[in-house]
Amino acid sequence: MELSGRGAMFQIVTETGGPMTLIPTLTETISRARADLRMGLPVMIGGYLAAAVETLSPERLQAMRALGQPVLAITARRAETLKARAYDGGLARVQLPGDADLRWLRALADPADDLRVPLKGPLATERGGDVTAHRAAIGLAKSAQLLPAMLMLPAPALPGLTELAAGPLLAQLAHEAAMAPVAAARLPLQSAENSRLHIFRPDDGGAEHYAIEIGAPPRDAPVLARLHSACFTGDVLGSLKCDCGPQLHAALNAMGQAGQGVLLYLNQEGRGIGLANKMRAYDLQNQGFDTVEANHRLGFEDDERDFRIGAALLKRLGFDAARLMTNNPRKVSMLEGHGIAVTERVPLITPRNRHNTGYLDTKAEKSGHLL
Ligand SMILES: Nc1nc2c(ncn2[C@@H]2O[C@H](COP(=O)(O)OP(=O)(O)OP(=O)(O)O)[C@@H](O)[C@H]2O)c(=O)[nH]1
Ligand SMILES: [Zn+2]
Questions:
Q1: Between the CA atoms of 270, 300, 164 and 14, what dihedral angle is there, to the nearest 10 degrees?
Q2: Element (H, E) at 315
């Protein structure tokens, strides 16, 4: 490759790959795009200008409307609550009435006021045509833990906006991130003095995950293991609404007593929807919906977690078999499907109280938990 002065300088920096190595990869561009959406900046996806309704400003909405007629892409879950027809499989493209302002868009995206202001329709939705860009945009919003509602408008690329091709974005969002160990240190715990905390970092710019290794479990035997999804409210604040805090401590205590075990602390708060959306879900639960219905009304699936991470981390730590502490059969099958033999499911039953009993019943009735 011919190099200008600037390029030649780059080449000195890159020892092996040449100057192109300095250009962001697809994974890196996606990570940037997530940050853009969270800040309220639109991104370009497959020839569409795509903005997250949750973070869109009135000025940017006005600027988008000046360029043409946008549609609002929402999930079929959210469309169902809004009584809008979803012709595109898992999603719907809602047409914007001429007077639709940011308040209108937010009301469609966020179910907080659904009961107070029930009728948003009738909503007209589009059918036919290629929806790859819309699907990719919804996937990107979810992976940024934003409400899955994206304002979409075909537009020429604008300078400075992050640009992504729709098909590759969709494929990459389904791709498993590689986990690299970054640091580990001895960390004596109340439940087990002989413990180490390992930090793992994914290559996709996503959240770091942790492994607490108790004792020195032999790598050639099934390890007593728990995959624990982050729950700030339960783990840190001692919330009575769920069973997470008591489960975390019960698992660590059991491993401490056994003298060995591995607890993976996966930063998938709120079953993968993030703490802000979990609080939106709690607000809906206070209005009478159960934990599954609340997720659906927000436009999410019941469980948006990626349990492949758990299998990948166990493998990175050198284990290929586990005695898994869980009541969730999906965790067992996901591990088994990804190369970890589960030789035993160890139940992890914690006390009920008047605040968590409905939640536990719903997990048993709708999510197949063995409680
Ligand atoms: N969206 C949502 N997430 C919740 C709610 N209550 C708890 N959570 C989250 O649910 C997850 C529970 O994680 P785990 O205890 O590891 O998993 P589990 O599916 O309950 O399975 P077990 O291994 O049997 O505990 C955590 O990420 C919590 O933050 C809720 O009402 N809505
Ligand atoms: Zn919890």
A1: 20
A2: helix 308-316
Global pTM value: 0.93
Active site residue 305: yes
Cα(22)–Cα(6) distance, rounded to whole angstroms? 12
Q: How far apart are CA 213 and CA 189, in angstroms?
A: 11
pLDDT digits (tens, 9 = 90+) for 312-351: 999 999 999 999 999 999 999 999 999 999 999 999 988 8
Residue 342 near residue 334 (C-beta atoms within 8 A): no
Closest-lying ligand 1 atom to the alpha carbon of residue 244: 15
Give the span between the Cα atoms of 56 and 252, in whole angstroms.
43
Ligand nearest to the CA of residue 229, numbered in listed order: 1
| Residue 73 near residue 102, CB atoms below 8 Å | no
Measured in Å, residue 249 CA sits from the centre of ligand 2 at 12
Residue 317 is which amino acid? L
For the question of an ipTM over 0.95, the answer is yes
> Is 21 labelled a binding residue?
no
- Burial class for 271, CB neighbours closer than 10 Å (0-12, 13-18, 19+): buried
Q: For residue 361, what pLDDT band results from cuts at 50, 70 and 90?
A: confident
Ligand 1 close to Cβ of residue 295 (< 6 A): yes
Distance CA 24, CA 253 (A): 44
The answer to whether residue 113 is catalytic is: no
Rg (CA), the chain: 23
Query: Which residues, 6 or more positions from 86, have their beta carbon under 8 angstroms from its beta carbon?
Result: 76, 79, 80, 92, 125
Ligand 2 centroid distance, CA of 286 (Å) = 16
Residue 213 C-alpha from the chain's centroid: 25
Start-to-end CA span in the chain (Å) = 63
User: Domain 179-268+305-367 in CATH: superfamily?
Assistant: GTP cyclohydrolase II (3.40.50.10990)
State yes or no: 269 annotated in a binding site: yes
Q: Which ligand is nearest to the CA of 284?
A: 1
Token pair of 95 as six digits: 């047409």
Distance of CA 246 from the midpoint of ligand 2 (Å): 9
Q: Is 307 helix (H, G, I), strand (E, B) or coil?
A: coil
- Class assignment of domain 26-174? alpha beta
